[in-house]
Amino acid sequence: MEANLVLQNVLTPPVLFFFLGIVAVVLRSDLEIPAPLPKLFSLYLLLAIGFKGGMELEKSGFGGQVLPTVCSAIAMSLLIPLICFGILRLKLDVFNSAAIAAAYGSISAVTFITAESFLESQNIHFDGFMVAALALMESPAIIVGLLLVKIAGTKNRPDSREMKWSTIIRESLLNGSVYLLLGSLLIGFLTAAHNPIGVEKMQPFTGKLFYGAECFFLLDMGIVAAQRLPGLKKAGSFLIFFAVLIPLFNAFLGVFVAKALMLGPGNALLFAVLCASASYLAVPAAMRMTVPEAKASYYISTTLGLTFPFNIVIGIPLYMGLVNNIIPSAG
């Protein structure tokens, strides 16, 4: 790993604000962000990256690397939960294994945004169509997680808790973050194609405000992540090791897929980050409702308390080094 890349990543405003939130909890500061604001900024970030991604997708079209990359991203979001489930079943029951596997098969939009900021700080080009991959990787993992429960956990469930296909599809495709991201992607695409003036009017909102909003959101994420750290003790050493090692393994897989797709270094890093990140919003919301047998403290503490900070502080520059070493043209 290139230590210089880690240092440059740590000294960016979003990551520094993340640490500021962690330190606030450690020092027991009375810093508190009113509950509606993090939700508002979360929705704003999803809207902005979806809109910008739609505009870039309109420019690039669906030819070249776009469709193979998006299809490969969906395939990875189906494969990764199965790998995770097989590992987790060594120590955990079906319900906890499926819920955690779904979380790691899905993605973290904030980790993706932080990776984009890292690439911009390094002046490394990446394409907007990667946002389409981001938007389409969230739902398949939820479907796989729920199917694993339906197939492997049927004997342990009362009939009243048997899931319906309509519930599975609805929770997978219509959860708030997926709906807003896909909708914004479509609006950005249509606006770029038919209303250039509309793009210009949206630019101050989706462009100039974005970086500041990201910093504020990561400040809150630092507070929340630090508050989740005690939950890791309950999760145990197996899950702690899992939360650190599985992102590395998934990123490794992602870089090799990116190499096969002949992606450039910027897109390859984003693809690896999508594979390595884990959902701490959409998947927990779906699992709480449909798999109440799973312990929320397990899949939230591991994804938010450990994997998320690991990825944004060390993982992103580490994966960039991996890209530079495995994809020759990226060096």
UniProtKB/TrEMBL annotation:
The chain crosses the membrane at residues 6-27, 39-55, 67-88, 100-119, 131-152, 173-197, 209-226, 238-262, 268-286, 298-320. Keywords: Membrane, Transmembrane, Transmembrane helix. InterPro entries: Sbt_1. It comes from the Bacteria. Pfam families: Sbt_1 (PF05982). Coiled coil: none annotated. PANTHER family: SLR1512 PROTEIN. This is Predicted permease. It comes from Prochlorococcus marinus (strain SARG / CCMP1375 / SS120).
